[in-house]
Amino acid sequence: MSAETGVDGPGIVIVGSGTAGATAATTLRARGFDGPVTVIGAEPGLPYRRTALTKDLLAADLSEARIALAKPESWAEKKIDVRGGVRVTAIDPQARTVTLDDGSALGYRALILATGGQPVRPAWLNDVATLRTRDDALAIRDRLRESERLVVIGGGLIGLELAASAAAHGMQVSVVEASNRVVGRVVPPVVSDYFASLHASHGVRLRTGTAASSVDAARVQLEDGTMLVGTVVAAIGALPDVALADSAGVSVGPTGIEVNASLATDVPGIYAAGDAAALPDLRTGQPARGEHWFGATDQGKAVALSVLADLAGEPAPSFVDVPRAWTIQYGVNVQMVGWPAEDGEISIDGSVADGDATVFTHVDGALVGAVTIGRAAAARAARAEITEALALGSTV
Ligand SMILES: Cc1cc2nc3c(=O)[nH]c(=O)nc-3n(C[C@H](O)[C@H](O)[C@H](O)COP(=O)(O)OP(=O)(O)OC[C@H]3O[C@@H](n4cnc5c(N)ncnc54)[C@H](O)[C@@H]3O)c2cc1C
């Protein structure tokens, strides 16, 4: 019998073994929950660092041991049952059970959906590769090693990291971006320009403001008729994995699985965290979804605290989610905090051209976002200031 819960029987089941799910599991244990904790992950193996997949892809050691989120033995030591290569296919919220694709079923007291996301794959992509999993990365790497050219569709963070990986190894790289600047959703124009010149200085040919009109795994034809040849990889965004939640009657909106500030869904006993979850935006209250490592990790921690509070009959804490993300390209560390792409007043401390700067975004006199280039530590201070400006204190 569990000393913490006072009952035998179902424990906490987590769907998804990414950072949100894995962090939720370890936080439950760190906070003293001693009932059963089961993490079910559709990908084979143990939880790993997805962020490693694009950093120096051609040379990086992507062995399971190298990119593991935690020492393999630590899961058993913490009595966390991680089941890799198994998918949850159905949830029965009344009976509080989940069905697995190995034919088994599992009861739960609380269920955490940490199902992450999937690359956007419109039909026009045909057989073009996309990158989300370790298997995807290994397959892309095999192809790149036999190729001299890479064509990336999509100038977001993942596309640019991939481009940097290949350019740093002497490959000829083109990046096609439909909008008129790269990483436009997350950074202000001055930082887009910085990324563009950083890539240009490494020989990458950026084609912004033009869309691919026809593509396959080995070539991209642009709207103006230009043909780009090479290994083609598309990185045009990700969609939250909401099908399971939806089928269980959990509220799902266009942004993801809708949760309150404590990461609880509208179905009792079911919670969501990470890239799949849409939380109330701190400024607007509207459901908003992040797609960044720190956010998913922070939410994994926060959802565990909410579950424990609910099980104990105590008020669940609110999660304060001022976004933070990072990227590394050609060895330059860039951090983004808050909402730096907002339409606001831009000010710069340092020199963007020299790769040593903080770019601040103020709206109505308040700091809403910042991007640090080559100064990771400054991001922390900026995030604290944004949090303060929102008149909120972090509960995690
Ligand atoms: C290549 C790449 C590089 C990145 N680099 C950075 C970076 O440098 N900085 C940054 O801030 N962010 C980065 N990100 C984003 C970051 O990795 C994600 O935000 C984070 O991994 C999200 O974690 P998650 O646990 O919510 O979801 P995921 O990591 O997607 O994990 C969800 C897991 O749930 C599993 N699953 C889904 N449905 C089921 C089911 N029904 N049954 C069982 N399992 C299921 C999936 O297979 C998956 O393994 C990167 C992302 C990618 C793809």
What does this structure look like?
It is a single chain. The chain has 396 residues and is of the alpha/beta class. The chain has three domains: 11-118 and 238-311, FAD/NAD(P)-binding domain, CATH 3.50.50; 121-234, FAD/NAD(P)-binding domain (3-Layer(bba) Sandwich), CATH 3.50.50; 331-389, Enolase-like, domain 1. Helices cover 24% and strands 30% of the residues. The protein has nine helices and 25 strands. Strand 4 (88-92) and strand 5 (97-100) form a beta hairpin. The longest helix is centred in the last third of the chain and has 19 residues, at 293-311. The protein is globular. It binds flavin-adenine dinucleotide. Flavin-adenine dinucleotide is lined by residues 15-21, 40-43, 50-51, 53-54, 87-88, 114-117, 131-132, 158, 241, 244, 274-275, 291-294, 296, 325-327. Flavin-adenine dinucleotide binds next to helix 1, strand 2, helix 8 and strand 21.
